[in-house]
Design the sequence.
């Protein structure tokens, strides 16, 4: 453990990074905040917060439709942000980047445009046993509408997908493989390369839910060669209410629009409307302009960090946190995959996660308790929920020590 | 003892505690003394489903008064459940239906009744009144 502590100091100056996030120096219930709920949403650096004030102070105007100066400025800023997202995930073109409300809307968009128009009775959508509800329910809905069938790749006791089973499930009737890159409830990094190979063999499309991946490691959609990749700004140090749908341009051009309204049209008459080109075809109405700009600012912030260092640092937190929790006899880990992001899901034998979470909160420690919008995962492990500590690069080993001390108090009070 | 008198009694008990750990340890102990619902009644029919923790509740009418039995799978909600049972039991349906509980707020446990806690307690109070209402008919 001591070497891990030493490593923290060597890797990077976490105190300097913490100073960029004002909320990290606030108090909760009279104690310094320890924020371990990054899997639910991350905190925001000052530059992201400032970008909102700057936008409304100096730039605010509607985009894509005014000849006046401010409208040009706002449009430019919004489109620059789109280009930053393109570079961030290494897409070929900005036309492949659609702004949405979040990961959930991105998945619903694909289900209701591609799915509703191309699925036939008996076609199969393949998901996994560890999906978030956002990658289950939209597919169930489109299955009901089209007669398609939902198939589920099972996982094992460690929280890893069973690839031999995937081989059997992904078959000639598979039209779509929709799989999470990283599990929010367990932290597992899924072997999406192998799954995608299976899907490509049968000509199925591939959607990757990257909501829990992009906050932790680099994603290259061209190298992956997936058809869709979706994620949310708020989990990657950007604002809530903004998400991204990446789609290959050819597919996006072929599928029909999602919602109708302004900005998504070329010409409108009462007889017929022709639609705008991608990406605008999928962006009806005035979008969340300031949020779109702010995701660009968050990307700038992430790009300025040394990526290798962040990875090492987060791994160090995961290792330390796991060892520290192991020292508590009653701790049972839920999800023991070999490849994980710094997310630790656990329970304390004999105690309800709600009670533990509440007593931690009283000590200023924010963890998530409950089913993490993944009820089938909880059913699989036969638990009512888990306690989840999910770390970001601004967390520290000292904070993990505070959580361990807080758990000891919870145990004492609840036993 | 009236509902209001029982509420006042609880408020007085909770005034003794100097810090939150003492208060919650007491609450957890109260939960352990709760008149438990029979294991056989811990079924869907008597379940008040919260998103995180769950509550089971049953009521009986004896000589014109309502008696509740309950349980929860988590200890802190169970403590609050026990307070609610103590306040509302052994009262007439009419008193229960018309009561506006204020003691939970006064003893600083209001946060457990926030919808974001998703522990089933808000629905539990509603369900207690629904039982009383049904007994009135």
Sequence:
């Amino acid at each position: 453990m001591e070497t891990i502590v030493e490593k923290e100091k060597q890797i990077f100056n976490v105190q300097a990074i913490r100073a960029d996030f004002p909320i990290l120096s606030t108090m909760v219930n009279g104690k310094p905040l320890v924020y371990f709920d990054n899997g639910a949403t991350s905190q925001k650096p000052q530059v992201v917060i400032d970008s909102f004030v700057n936008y409304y102070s100096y730039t605010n105007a509607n985009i894509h439709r005014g000849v006046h100066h401010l409208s040009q400025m706002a449009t430019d800023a919004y489109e620059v942000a789109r280009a930053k997202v393109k570079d961030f995930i290494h897409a070929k073109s900005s036309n492949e980047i659609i702004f949405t409300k979040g990961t959930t809307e991105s998945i619903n968009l694909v289900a209701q445009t591609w799915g509703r128009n191309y699925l036939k009775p008996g076609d199969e959508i393949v998901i996994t046993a560890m999906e978030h509800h956002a990658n289950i329910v939209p597919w169930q809905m489109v299955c009901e509408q089209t007669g398609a069938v939902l198939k589920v790749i099972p996982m094992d006791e460690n929280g890893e997908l069973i690839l031999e089973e995937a081989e059997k499930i992904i078959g000639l009737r598979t039209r779509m493989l929709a799989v999470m890159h990283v599990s929010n409830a367990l932290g597992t990094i899924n072997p999406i390369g192998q799954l995608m190979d299976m899907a490509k063999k049968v000509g199925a499309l591939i959607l990757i839910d990257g909501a829990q991946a992009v906050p932790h490691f680099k994603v290259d959609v061209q190298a992956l060669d997936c058809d869709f990749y979706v994620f949310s700004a708020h989990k990657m140090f950007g604002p809530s209410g903004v998400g991204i749908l990446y789609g290959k341009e050819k597919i996006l051009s072929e599928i029909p629009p999602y919602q109708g309204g302004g900005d998504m049209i070329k010409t409108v008459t009462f007889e017929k409307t022709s639609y705008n080109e991608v990406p605008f075809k999928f962006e009806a109405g005035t979008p969340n302009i300031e949020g779109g700009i702010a995701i660009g600012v968050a990307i700038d912030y992430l790009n300025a960090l040394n990526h290798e260092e962040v990875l090492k640092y987060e791994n160090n937190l995961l290792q330390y946190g796991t060892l520290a929790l192991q020292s508590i006899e009653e701790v049972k880990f839920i999800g023991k995959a070999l490849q994980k992001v710094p997310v630790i899901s656990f329970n304390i034998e004999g105690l309800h996660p709600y009670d533990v979470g509440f007593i931690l909160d009283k000590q200023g420690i924010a963890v998530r308790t409950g089913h993490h919008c993944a009820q089938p995962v909880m059913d699989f492990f036969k638990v009512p929920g888990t306690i989840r500590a999910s770390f970001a690069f601004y967390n520290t080993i000292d904070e993990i020590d505070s959580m361990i001390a807080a758990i000891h108090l919870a145990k004492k009070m609840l036993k | 003892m009236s509902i209001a008198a029982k509420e006042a009694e609880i408020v007085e008990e909770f005034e003794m505690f100097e810090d939150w750990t003492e208060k919650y340890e007491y609450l957890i102990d109260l939960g352990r003394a709760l008149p438990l619902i029979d294991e056989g009644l811990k079924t869907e029919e008597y379940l008040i489903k919260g998103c995180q923790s769950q509550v089971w509740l049953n009521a009986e009418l004896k000589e014109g008064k309502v008696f509740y039995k309950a349980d929860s799978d988590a200890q802190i909600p169970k403590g609050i459940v026990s307070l609610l049972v103590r306040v509302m039991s052994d009262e007439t349906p009419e008193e229960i239906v018309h009561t506006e509980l204020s003691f939970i707020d006064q003893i600083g446990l209001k946060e457990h009744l926030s919808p974001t806690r998703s522990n089933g307690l808000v629905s539990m109070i509603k369900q207690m009144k629904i039982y009383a209402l049904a007994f009135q008919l």
In short: The two ends of chain A are 28 Å apart (CA to CA). The mean pLDDT of chain A is 95. Chain A touches chain B through 16 residues (CB under 8 Å). The longest strand of chain A covers residues 174-180.
